[in-house]
From TrEMBL, chains A, B:
InterPro entries: HotDog_dom_sf, THEM4/THEM5_acyl-CoA_thioest, Thioestr_dom. It is found in: Cell projection, Ruffle membrane; Cytoplasm; Mitochondrion inner membrane; Mitochondrion intermembrane space. This is Acyl-coenzyme A thioesterase THEM4. One of its GO terms (biological process) is fatty acid metabolic process. Gene3D superfamilies: Hotdog Thioesterase.
């Protein structure tokens, strides 16, 4: 049970960045116990979500051949076959993605006043496939690497025909934050330092790759680059700093 | 005529950031001449926009009292009355804001292949008032300052109940980039360095203030902070570097 919550919170990466909480939502029981330090509180989740919310990380009709091809490549590495024909987990793992964060607790009472029913995850707030952020994340725990395949929709425009610098920053925060949260506790973004090298045309597919530089106490340092899918063109590079945080204050009412 | 184009391009701030081009679109004639260095080309604009597109910088029903109060304060400083009762421009200027970039030229031919008809400005891509980015920018040329009043809608969620770090980065890029483009030529974002100090609750209104640190050749250095509306709480601070660019290649077909 505690492990379920731990896994849930592992996806939560902070107070100024993106939680991919939905990833664990399907695994949550409707009533779970949470133990933190010296306090144990029952948290009842009256899940207002459909039993199987839409997983935005799966292919849809808007994905172009480049996006689909890369998805299939990394997805094929998520499961490998042994010599004996047995299937087991591969080196990569696809991270599902939903448009909601955690919502209710304690029998319908809000988990806290800051968790609002109408809220939607910034990168998943559009129903129209292909219009904005189309992306899927794969993580390789062994190599401490994360790869995101990102197709930029026409509603992300900044300068004519190109992706807005803020939309690029949003994807960098998403990828590095999700990566940092996979490594340990929930985290919050403390710093993003982004160099814009070359503009990204609307409609194009790019790769966003992150790797862990170091961990020091509560700090996780991650670097990241955005390139063309063949890696030949560098669009953006960035460093990110995340701080591990306690989140019990978000879940508990005392 | 050349001045009209100059004013048009002044609003365009780069290849990885946000142009507020619509601001001058109403003033453009349907056929204008553009002189750049040694080339003079006729650029005909078959404006596919309604004559008066929606100006997103004007109040709507979603604006809360804090947003409205601040808007009225800065708006009142855009026009002052002399002792003789005459009205004239004040120290501040409100910047109109639209959801499109420049689209067509030369009698219906695309300005360039990179300018797409369906594209919408990232920060103005929602029709629903209050759902995402509600903001208005005021600029004070004399003091080289820019102020943005920003109300964060429920579709900008990152961590539960709080604004996504990418949405904050988007607003910082928008404000600093618009500010840099007001000072000189069109610019592109070269670097954003953002420190996240304190999370911003969804639905709240904050102030984003930018000031010019220095200009060196093609470079403009701007710093920026995001605070509560009374200035007592620092949410985010950032520095930004912009490079002046030539944009004739976006407008001309040879």
């Amino acid at each position: 049970m505690a492990r379920s919550i731990g896994r849930l919170l592992k996806g939560f990466h902070g107070l100024s960045t993106l939680p991919e909480l939905g990833v664990q939502l399907n695994h949550l029981p409707t009533c779970v116990s949470l133990r933190t330090a010296s306090v144990r509180t029952k948290v009842a989740l009256s899940l207002p979500f459909p039993p199987k919310p839409r997983d935005f990380s799966l292919p849809n009709s808007s994905w172009g051949p480049e996006m689909l091809g890369l998805y299939e490549h990394y997805n094929s590495l998520c499961e490998v076959e042994t010599e004996g024909g047995e299937k087991r987990e591969g080196p990569w793992q696809r991270l599902p993605s939903y448009n909601r964060s955690l919502k209710y607790a304690t029998g319908g009472v809000y988990l806290s006043k800051i968790i609002q029913s109408k809220a939607r995850l910034f990168t998943r707030n559009m129903r129209d496939p292909g219009a904005a952020f189309e992306y899927v994340l794969f993580v390789n725990e062994g190599e401490q690497r994360c790869v995101c395949i990102f197709q930029a929709g026409h509603l992300l425009e900044g300068p004519p025909g190109h992706v807005h610098g803020g939309a690029i920053a949003t994807m960098i925060d998403t990828v590095t934050g999700t990566h940092a949260s996979q490594l340990s506790e929930p985290v919050m973004t403390a710093n993003l330092n982004i160099n814009y090298r070359s503009p990204i045309p609307l409609g194009s597919t790019v790769l966003i790759e992150s790797c862990v530089d170091k961990k020091e106490g509560r700090k996780t340092f991650i670097s990241c680059k955005v390139t063309s899918t063949d890696g030949s063109k560098l669009h953006t590079d960035a460093t990110a700093l995340f701080l591990s945080i306690g989140v019990s204050h978000l879940l508990l009412r005392e």
